[in-house]
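User: Second chain of the day. Same drill as before.
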Amino acid sequence: MTDITNLLDYDRKSLENYFDEIGDKSFRAQQVIKWIFHHGVVDYPSMTNLSKNLRSKLEENTVIKLPEIVTEQKSEDGTRKWLVQLDNKNSVETVFIPENDRGTLCISSQVGCPLDCKFCSTAQQGFNRNLTTSEIIGQVWIANKALGCFESGKRMITNIVFMGMGEPLLNYTNVLKAINLLTDDLAFGLARRRVTVSTSGIIPEIDRLKDDTNVSLAISLHASNNDLRNSIVPINRSYPLIDLTGCM
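Assistant: Same format as last time:
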């Protein structure tokens, strides 16, 4: 049985390729992306500028599948933390932090983390798997839905940080496609400086990121010398501080 395609796994370029492959016009990708990310519409019958034939074809061969919020915690300052279920076995956390001049959403890129940083509670859970693009960008969609942004037309999420569970640069391809959607004017339309990738220092992927996009980068150092950093951030043994600072 052929796997059903989740359209949320595609950024604009790959979705345009998909429509080319099924013999339709590539601009259909732009229409679908606007429905999903501008209007919050994820059912095909409501996408009224698509032909009935195309909507039927999409319903037969694709889905727009989102993760689901399982629990929500709210604090007095307006911070909201969601436990987000990905499948029957895996969940991640997503956190919205409101401030006077911004609203920051902290999203996850992996279930657990393989890097074993000694101070990190996520590392103690071990590593299960990478998130798909749909699971990454889906956190942003469901947060917008929970905050009422689609209905009000008000942008409450102004900044995205990949500082949730996992090392984003170890899930490079899916994270990059999610970044493309976050910064695409037809999708979430965030300025690149408002999207931050936080990494413990995977130097080859930092170099790739510089070539592929110009979003912001945050390095989690946690120590100012190699001996101490080796003990608490084990990846430093592969990519030591002197090399890490030289790649910036």
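DSSP finds ten helices and eleven strands in the chain.

User: Great, on to the next one.
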